[in-house]
Amino acid sequence: MVAIMRKPPFWMRWRRWRAAAAFVDALFKARIKAGLVDASAADQ
Question: Is the dihedral of CA 16, 18, 24, 27 positive or negative?
Answer without folding.
Answer: negative
